[in-house]
Amino acid sequence: MTTRRDFLKKATLATIGSVLAVSKAEALTKFTSPLFNINKEAKPGRLKMRFFPYELKLRHVFTVATYSRTTTPDVQVEITYEGVTGYGEASMPQYLGQTVESVSAFLRKVDLSQFSDPFQLDDILTYIDSLSPGDTAAKAAVDIALHDLVGKLLGAPWYKIWGLNKAKAPSTTFTIGIDTPEVVRQKTRECADKFNILKVKVGRDNDKEMINTIREVTGLPIAVDANQGWKDREQALDMIHWLKEKGVVMVEQPMARERKDDIAWITEHSPLPIFADEALQRLKDIKDVEGAYTGINIKLMKCTGMREAWKMLNYARARGMKVMVGCMTETSCAVSAAAQLAPAVDFADLDGNLLISNDRFRGMEVVKGKITLPDRPGIGVVLI
Questions:
Q1: For residue range 55-88, what is the model confidence (pLDDT) as tens digits?
Q2: Number of domains in the chain
Q3: What pTM did the predictor assign?
Q4: Are residues 286 and 150 in the same domain?
Q5: Same domain, yes or no, for 319 and 340?
Q6: Which pLDDT tens digit goes with each residue over 294-310?
Q7: DSSP labels, 248-303
Q8: Where are the beta strands (DSSP E) in the chain?
């Protein structure tokens, strides 16, 4: 087993070295090329997958412009190869339209026995994607577990495999949902001395009350997410100008995604960058939002995982767009997977694990508000 692992590690690191030697411009044109392409004659191993439901319990009632919730359904995935286990998960907030039942049904269709080499990530994940046109969270669970497994076999975290400097990871926002002034003050007091930037859910008729209430407690920079809640583009633009005066630094999904022309008009006149969230899910969607938004918010549960997220980041950069990496309500497993991208983004909203009371993992940490990536291999998580 040791000889086999040494071979895989040396061969793959050699491949990475050749990839890093390619110019940026050339690399950006090769989104379909697999990161690893190792063929060998060694005795094949066996990939084994198991999964189980795991309900995430929120510390507070979480309210956005369109719904409220106290729990989030989740499915945990484990993929084992030669005694090494990679962890993944599928988190399913209401608006994704996926359930524990649909994710479990998808995962039961997955047959990894046809693959003997976990380093064939492109082949495996292309197969996973071919099993259905949707099921993005379920696909992300498998993707994250495979990336964790491969990173562990290599003995390296993914931010290093991608050639990133973890010191460049930004501060993460901490989200404050729509609530009464009293609860908003309480939540703000709890987090104001631990974070460097807040994220505030807006999109209802109490937006100014929300911001003014927070400003009674702290002067920290704020990112706002309207979750498609604003209805009139001129009123939205007026609100954005007012928000800028209140120390807001960016706006996410101001109007319904179908109103692309109105959003493009807002972006053209806005003093703040406008980011797409609900307006896109996957790589193919970027061309549809280009020109209407300043940047994109990449979420693993929407884009099928780390492989596609990395492609989206590089494509958006090549098109001159800003990039944000976000998350759902998740354990430290999926949040730490998304955090591997953090050193390459403009904004990060990776607080999903901090919103729950029953995390199974320890992974990415927030130290004085800043994303701090561990040096552990894979996605950097360990079971608690």
A1: 999 988 877 666 678 999 999 999 999 999 999 9
A2: 2
A3: 0.88
A4: no
A5: yes
A6: 999 999 999 999 999 99
A7: EEEEE--S-TT-HHHHHHHHHH-SS-EEESTT--SGGGHHHHBTTBSEEEEEHHHH
A8: 47-53, 56-63, 68-72, 74-81, 84-91, 173-176, 197-201, 222-225, 248-252, 274-276, 295-299, 322-326, 347-348, 361-362, 365-367, 370-372, 382-383
